Write the structure tokens for this entry.
Amino acid sequence: MREFLLLIRSEEEPKANLSPDQMQQHIEKVGGYLKKLTEEGRMKSAQPLEMEGTMLSYKNGQIVDGPYNETKEIISGYYHLMAKDLDEAIAIAKQDPRFEEGIWRMEVRPIKYVEGIN
Amino acid sequence: MNSQQSKKANQLTSHFFRNEYGKLVAVITRYLGNAHVETAEDIVQETLLKATEHWEMKGIPENPKAWLYTTAKNLTLNVLKRKKYQREYESQTDQKSEMNEIGFFSDELIEDSQLKMMFACCHPSVSENSQIALILKILSGFSVSEIANAFFSNEETINKRLVRGRLQLRKVKIDLSLKFDIDKRLEAVLKTIYLLFNEGYFPASKNQVIRFDLCLEAIRLARLLEESTVIANKTACSALLALMYFNASRFASRVSDTGEIIDLKEQDRSKWDSLLIQRGMQHLNNITLTKTITKYSILAAISANHCISESYKKTNWDEILSLYDQLMLLEDSPITQLNRSVALAEVKGVQAAISTLETLGKESDINNYFLYHFTLAEFHKTNKTFKKAYSAYNRALNLAKNPRDKELLKKKLNTLVLISPSQLS
């Protein structure tokens, strides 16, 4: 088993325009999917991120706060997932029902692993 | 793993968000004032959004209601604080004490606020086509696009109605402690609920689910009225509920698998929902004990007669016709006459119904209504006066505005042509 980090990306807040009924459906669908993966021991952690925060960078000898990324796309949450290999991680990610809403992108990245160390 | 699986997951009741949306907007508007209903809507949308973000990842909390109420309360207090900075003089001490004493979202406050909102939305100073849109948006938690879908309209039109409606709502003041206010306005509220139900009841090939939702919403709103403690005479509420339960029981049988409308005559009666019929009967029984007779009581009794009959043929048409005669005493409208003519055709024959309708057409402007010509066409078809049926269907087709109705009429015309080409020429 290898570890993966799945970054959920979206433009601004895509759920803001869903109707109350659609939000409830979203919770039921995505929540059910995550619950199943958690019960199987595959999902180590799944967290939403606040739509705030900052981008620190080092410029001219000091740490600068902001500006935030130029692109409108931000990371709105992440999954920490266990899978056999990248293919399996991708296959699991594809089953996320949030894709049915067509407003999400997901980055699937293996967590770096060095034989014998971690 | 087994222990995790056996752990009972919290689940949301169906339409939980939609219903809570209505409750929260109603109460928050009470705090912010009618002029700020849109701010209240925004607060609640944000509350539900926060819930969505947390619950999808972390699961549904043990007490989802409390979670929503706390979040909504905090967001509302933030807005109230901001306002206080701008307009210090607006310190409404009455409301502040209300908040502290009985809790921000107490059951009592929710019930009272929802009723107030319902009466406000149906106030005569709010234009009629804004009323239903406002109710669906504010009290029922439908989105603009859902309302547009349900009404075969577009988002722009619905938005305009909402904007106008919210402006008109600013001037409305409803005091539920005044019995006068309630009695005077109840009729308008019931009328709007019945309109809402009928919007959902006419079948369409598309959006079946959302349209049945309109019917359920109408029933939910009527139940709020029936359960309320401030309305003294609830005969009309119970009667309307009975009527809606009876009509809703036939919902599944009214549309074929391919989305076509099925007449009462041809419906598969085994598909009728016996539980809803039972509920209708309970409400009907409750009102037979009272002395008040309302339009809805008679309509419910008519619908009940259909519900308990094993076939169209065996329906007690004599009883239904006499109920229509009673209804005419209360509401002698062309529409009532039109509906009565169907029962008349069964009791006195189709020829009698045709001549009644022809007289009606001369005396009123109902001949601008497509259903008048549709009904007349059906009678002519039964009477085998096909040429007249053909031209009546055509007039109906010209007058029908809704694509759904046009489609049905075209089909009727086509079958007529198929059945009897020689008789038409």
